[in-house]
Amino acid sequence: MTKEERLNIKIENKEQITLSNSSEFVKLTAIIVSLLSLISVGLILYFFKIKIESILLIFTFLIVYLLFIVQLKEYVSASIKDEMLITKNIFNTKKITSIKSIKSISSKTLFNVDFTKVTYKLDGTKYSIRIIQKIDSEHLKNDEIIKTILKIAC
After folding, report:
1. Is the Cβ–Cβ distance between 78 and 22 less than 8 Å?
2. Are β-strands 113-122 and 125-134 bridged in parallel, bridged antiparallel, or unpaired?
3. Rounded to 10 degrees, what is the CA torsion of 92, 98, 104, 110?
4. Among positive and negative, which fits the CA dihedral 40, 41, 42, 48?
5. Are 80 and 11 contained in the same domain?
6. What is the count of structural domains for the chain?
7. Which domain holds residue 141?
8. What pTM did the predictor assign?
9. DSSP code of 91?
């Protein structure tokens, strides 16, 4: 039985299709970036003896770190049940929307890790989510799954 046939059977039986089962990878990345930022700030303070240049550099690090934290909200664990897209970010904010509200899907693969970006509208507001999943030979890519379900739903 091929991957596509297994996907079609799950769709027909209205089973839950998991696109990404956890955001642990994103949480681990956030912890590593936080630790590296703290170490960098500590080293700057130690080597520059708190001069104006070090304060400006620390301010720059903090801005970059805050932008990173803002981006973390887009990384979600996601699944599809029937024609509904169910997402949960690392801050445990859950959203449920119709699969028909998806406007665009893009995907990139790097080192057997699939990075999928999905843009959809919910209550008149445009949202963007990112899904990370390790790819193995038994599963389809997330964008292929979503596109297949969109064809069936429309």
Report:
1. no
2. antiparallel
3. 50
4. positive
5. yes
6. 2
7. 3-22+75-153
8. 0.66
9. T
